[in-house]
Amino acid sequence: MPTLKRRTLLALAVAFAAPRVAASQHDAAMLPRVGILISETLSGQASRIDALRTGLLERGQVDGKSIRLVVLSAEGDYQRLPQLAAELLSQNPAVVVAFGIKALTAARSATATVPIVVPSTSSDLLALGLVRSLARPGGNVTGAMNFGPEVAAKRLELLKQVRPDAYRVAVLVNPANTSFGPTMQRMEMSAKALRLSLRTFAVRSPDEFDATFAAIAKARSDAMVVQDDTIFGEANAAAIAQLAQRHRLPSLGSKGFAEAGGLVGYGSLEAEMYRRGAHFVDRILRGAKPGDLPIEQATRFELVLNASTARSIGITFPQAVVLRADRLIE
């Protein structure tokens, strides 16, 4: 009898639990989907994903409770982006978050109606025709820009201050980034005034880093500036910085690049912008139209100097540059 009683109680517990589990699964399936489309590796975009999650949590948007995050990554194979965008859209997301211009281009090519948010891009969304105006984007794209061409030109100015005798400057670029052309135009203008000669070196995959740096060295480059692109970001910044140090090449890039071992970093606060990106997602989930949400522009920029790297390649930072720095990495 005790065994029969236990079996009866267990059966009743399962019977009562089953509807609740089914209801829970049904509720989760009914949550609005927030798609995230990434062109690079998931590991390489971890800090951006965390920043976006944090921003969503701050606004009461919890994965599995109020929203369901669906993350798809091309893992660096850009040819997969159109397919992944279509796959993401087949799940009827309420909004898609594009990590960078390559993901944004793929998402925008796949839909003109589903809202798309780009938390940060170095590309000019207005010049590319992705928005009608900054104040009223008018279509299905909104988000923020970080003055990519202007930041790149500023890095050249910093280079001239740190290494006044520099002349031949290698520019590490990803041709798949649509901001490549406008950025180089702005850099060429600055280079002419600074009496610098620029030469671009294209990288389409991390597998090309070693060969590219060999070519940079063969060209007798005096320094290197890194374009803002996801391929040169979190996942690969340290490898690029190490190669630059091995060739005793002064290197300038983003704030994160200096933190990873580059000589000088200057740029917007990426984590802050991705955290802020949650604002657009939340507004859209609450009924706002992306075309009515103004495009924001980065307002905070940091200058980071890596003193350890400077010592390793025989560079001494001018005191005027040190005094302007927001942070000096020892």
Main sheet overview: 7 strands, mixed
Beta strand %: 15-25%
User: What is the total number of structural domains?
Assistant: 2
**CATH class identity of the largest domain:** Alpha Beta
The order of strands across the largest sheet is 7-6-8-9-10-12-13
CATH architecture assignment name of the largest domain: 3-Layer(aba) Sandwich
Helix content: 40-55%
Protein architecture, described:
The longest helix has 29 residues. The protein folds into two domains: 164 residues, Rossmann fold (3-Layer(aba) Sandwich), CATH 3.40.50.2300; 150 residues, Rossmann fold. About 2% of the residues have low confidence. With 330 residues, it is of the alpha/beta class. Helix 8 links the parallel strand 8 and strand 9. Helix 2 packs across helix 10, helix 3 crosses helix 4 and helix 5 runs parallel beside helix 6. The N and C termini lie far apart (75 Å). The chain has twelve helices and 13 strands. It is elongated, with a radius of gyration of 24 Å. A seven-stranded mixed beta sheet has the order 7-6-8-9-10-12-13, with helices on both faces. The chain has a six-stranded parallel beta sheet with strand order 2-1-3-4-5-11.
